[in-house]
Amino acid sequence: MINIPKGTKDVLPQDAYKWHFIEDTAAEVARVYNLKEIRTPVFEHTELFQRGVGDTTDIVNKEMYTFNDKGGRSITLKPEGTAGAARAFIENGMSSGVLPAKMFYITPAFRYERPQAGRLREFHQFGIEVYGSEKPDADAEVIFAASSFLQKLGVKDVKLKINSIGCKTCRARYNQALKEYLAPNLDKMCPVCRDRYGKNPLRILDCKEEDCKKITAQAPRITDYLCDECAEHFNAVQAYLKAGGLEFTVDPDIVRGLDYYTKTVFEFVSGGIGAQGTVCGGGRYDGLIEELGGSHIPAVGFAAGIERLILLMENTAVPFPEEGKPDIYFAGMDDESRRVAFSLALKAREQGIAAETDHMGRSVKAQFKYADKIGAKYVAAIGGNELEEGAVNIKRMADGQVQKVNFADINAYVLNGK
Ligand code: HAM
User: Fold this and answer.
1) Closest by alpha carbon to 307, among 101, 89, 116, 39?
2) Probe ligand 1: pick from 8, 80, 159, max atoms within 8 Å of CB?
3) Residue 418 above 80 pLDDT?
């Protein structure tokens, strides 16, 4: 037998309703926030992620599914949704369209990580991206959209943490201070961090190695180095969050694992799923579009992990609304009545009624049992008498009540009782 690859999961038919609930909720948030869907390829040129996500990040360094295709091009399965959306934005000339351009996506993403609860190698993200505004209210709107999504799902005890990691100007000053602080302990840090020290010191704050974490615990904080413009922007974002009644904490340790961020970064974190508690992360990325060859278009967005949300909801007993059961089951006795049951089911379906009938050659008794098992609301058993009369006793399974209904009136009867 061939097994599923490590770090991937099947969504089985009995669990699909959970996904539908999350996807429907995402679509509803997108509707009220006026976000239009964008779909981009599952794979892109590797360079997009090297330049977009950043070649000092764990994602690009260690986690990408990269291969050469038969034409010798280096191709990578998307590790996240932002870079592909940004590429599409540039390539399709959307910067000369109406701004802001507000979009959302639901996409698979691939990262070669060590699988554990809430961490997979293939996972799915609901993300939104807003292009064209550098204003703090755009950041706040994106954060409110994420919050509203989580609220509509019914997840509890998720905390919002925000930070600002500044712009090019303040980042340069901060990097200098950070390097001065780290220099005496550099030889005690992991090789990756030693490499990052020269290329991108901020990334060191993201290291998961215990020794490195100990050293960075007392490091200078980016929030103390923000330039006036970034500080003002960060204050304004907070003012919008407060005005909308959203609780948050400022956490200077949030630097995010991707290089494109500028100014605002944020995460929604839960204690309900162990180590992988971040259900949603995002922030502003004012330099990405330019970095990828477009014009200067500021942007802000987030992505939430669908598997992580499902896990959190399961662990904390948040109910998923179950999907509909069959409205009516048509049982047939012999060949002729089975054909009539089959046709009645077809007619019912044409009217939008969920109808089921037997394909297993079961006895009428076994069909009743099966109809009960699949939760059919009504059962109509058709035999010789029913064929003669053109009418059938329809049983309401909830209370056993029986009603005689002409074949021609069955659909109206079921729709009335829906
Ligand atoms: P990210 O923080 O790397 O950000 O991922 C966003 C979310 O995807 C995480 O909060 C988590 O819920 C989920 N996630 C990430 N890795 C895994 C994994 N291995 N298994 C399961 N779930 C995972 C981004 O991807 C950015 N593109 C977000 C963004 C959009 N920023 C601006 N716009």
Assistant:
1) 116
2) 80
3) no
